[in-house]
Amino acid sequence: MKFDYVVIGAGSAGCAVANRLSESGKYSVAVIEAGGKDTNPWIHVPVGYFKTMGNPRTDWQYVTEQDQGLNGRSIPWPRGKVLGGSSSINGLLYVRGQPQDFDHWRQLGNAGWAWEDVLPYFRRAENWKGDVPDPDDVRGRSGPLAVSPTALTREVVDKWIEAANAAGYPSNPDYNGLNQEGVGYFQLTMDRGRRCSSAVAYLRPARGRSNLTIITDMQVEKLIMSEGRVTGVRGIRNGASETIGVTREAILSAGAIGSPQILMLSGIGDSADLAPLGIDMQKHLPGVGRNLQDHLQARPVFKTDLPTINVEINNLFKQAAIGLQYIAARSGPMTMAASLGTGFVKTDPRLDTPDIQFHIQPWSADKPADGPHKFSAFTASVLQMRPESAGELKLKSANINDHPVIHPNYLATELDQKTIVKGIQVARRICEFEPLKSHITAEYSPGSEVAFDDEAATLDWARNTSVTIYHPTGTCKMGSDDMAVVDDRLRVHGIQGLRVADASIMPVITSGNTNAPSIMIGEKVSDMIIEDARA
Question: Is 471 annotated as catalytic?
């Protein structure tokens, strides 16, 4: 088999690339996914992330190395292994980030990536179903990706929002507008009670195109190159090796872990790391796998006398009623995203833009996989949006089946340590305001043993309990410096016929959840590829 364009990875960005490149009918396109088809019904039920994360059929099940910033803990890093990638197993939360994020990318030397450049691609992707005013005309209403306001509400979240207002944090009806700051409910990649993954949005309507081939259950081992140009892709399917030819370009969209892993296995990376593994070098690019950034969430939990999901599902009769409600009307708790409420706020009023984000969940658990607590409680998860700390990933071996070694390097700088502490303090402070305060019966975690103003104890609690919120980025960063992997048209430096298009190209992580920016990257690179083909 031979195709003009081969997209490696059918995730958030890859599905968009496959759709747009095959749209005109001029080019033959193949998209290769290591996972299977998105036929698991839990993928499409919004609350199904409880069933798909940790499932080896839909999740790569990565695990980090022991991390000094987490007091030596290693933690799971779920990533999607199915059509739609992580957009098929994530929490459905739609956040573009701040306009300043993309202006910063441009200031770093990446032409064409300022807010005014990327906004048309956010709009093109989006079918916004909300009715809030859009005076700046920044929302899209005719794109393939359904984005909806949260239909499910809970009293505890309403009261948290009101308490945040009382604490001085304003409400914001549309944090995806020009101003992100404020509190409210999340916007979701959901349509009429069903998940709208990138596969649903982009691959489903394109399946009938004769020039698009969707290949599942094929794990790409390496890129095949001749004289510095990618000419094919080699992978394993059903236990047998297959080679797919590339006549124009390969687009690597395997995510912030998969993309650098495939590059390194193909001999593109730091020669000092790859040569000892017996990998033939094609291009020395020391930045491959480095600049790894993620959002780390601390999870304060508060007991409450208000009803929460913990008690709404605490017996089989209630669970059956919830299931029937979803079957009959696609409503109720089974339409719950990973979080309901959110807040983008500043830890210091002197900051230009918010630096922390809240995920307010009307449930709580020590570990989600263990199920919710037996008591009624909510979680006020808080993260630092622009961490300075950066880690790396390296190959464990030259075997594609060996997961890379992941070093997140969380909380490695003083700013990151201070910001997570301040974020936890903000979470606790909001709960001291009415109308929420009188409904909190106890602070379950950190708890009274960690005093509000004890910064050292608060930081230690964060190190002992914080977990990823699933936003790895930056490992094939865009730029022109010595550690850059791709240029501002996402072409891999020094290699012909190869681009990277996913969250790995972010030079700096965006301020918030990363699914929406990843889809935008897929939309934007598609135009670049088509422009270059015409030229």
Answer: yes
